[in-house]
Specification:
Blueprint lengths: L17 E6 L4 H10 L7 E5 L2 E7 L1 H21 L4 E2 L5 E3 L4 E3 L3 E4 L3 H4 L14 E5 L8 H8 L3 E5 L4 E7 L2 E5 L10 H13 L1 H16 L9
Parallel strand pairs: 8-9
Antiparallel strand pairs: 1-3, 2-3, 2-6, 4-7, 5-6, 7-8, 9-10, 10-11
Length: about 220
């Protein structure tokens, strides 16, 4: 018997961040039926975009990166004295657009006063100011198009190596070097934080806070959103 070996065998592959299942040709009602039938999804996240449903099951490398990015954002918000409402992976439904998403994390910062202390209704409330998506493996959903349609002003996407930051302009996302919310922070700051956290998360957070506090003594670098 002859065994054919794939060229990929024997190579060190990168970490698998997610497992995904995709369904096509679903109506909004069919999507809602599936959503209601999966009350205990053990962290699975559903994204629906005009007939396409993707179910994502995050794995360790995904969750590790995501939780650290959450810490990174909370540190910046806290040290700058900003307001914050964290939405986590709350389902963002827009039946009128035939779209729905459960992002990795969503935040109200600039618009926090408009939604503080109550449940958010996207029919009348603004969308989250910042959404974070970690996609280490490829996704069948065009998330830039989806979140642009939802009107999300800022989108961070991390693929396990690089962070892409997008700012919404005239209904389309523009790739930018720095966050509109934290314009004085370079991407390298996040990369350094993630690398340090591989060794010790507490020390990495302490170093990040010290960096932000030192930067606060240089007012010309700090621009409030």
């Amino acid at each position: 018997m002859v065994t054919t070996i794939s060229p990929l065998q024997g190579l060190a592959l990168g970490p698998i961040g997610e497992q995904r299942v995709c369904f096509r040709g679903l109506t909004w009602d069919a999507y809602q039926q599936i959503f209601q039938a999966l009350p205990h999804r053990r962290g699975a996240r559903l994204t629906y975009d005009r007939g396409t449903l993707e179910i994502t099951m995050p794995l360790e490398s995904h969750e590790f990166s995501l939780r650290l990015i959450e810490v990174f954002i909370r540190c910046l918000v806290f040290e700058l004295g900003l307001k914050l409402k964290t939405m986590g992976s709350t389902t963002l439904n827009r039946q009128d657009l035939d779209r729905s998403s459960e992002p990795d994390c969503a935040y109200y910062i600039q618009n926090q006063p408009k939604v503080a202390g109550r449940r958010v209704d996207l029919a009348t409330d603004p969308p989250p100011d910042l959404i974070v998506e970690v996609d280490i493996t490829s996704t069948d959903i065009d998330k830039n198009c989806l979140y642009a349609a939802l009107g999300v002003p800022e989108l961070w996407r991390y693929n396990g190596r690089e962070l892409s930051i997008y700012r919404l302009e005239n209904g389309l996302y523009q790739n930018c070097d720095r966050s509109p919310t934290f314009p004085w922070i370079e991407k390298q700051c996040l990369y350094d934080f993630l690398a340090e956290a591989e060794q010790d998360e507490i020390e990495a957070e302490q170093n990040l806070r010290e960096f932000v506090q030192q930067s606060l003594h240089q007012p010309d670098q700090i621009q409030q959103p």
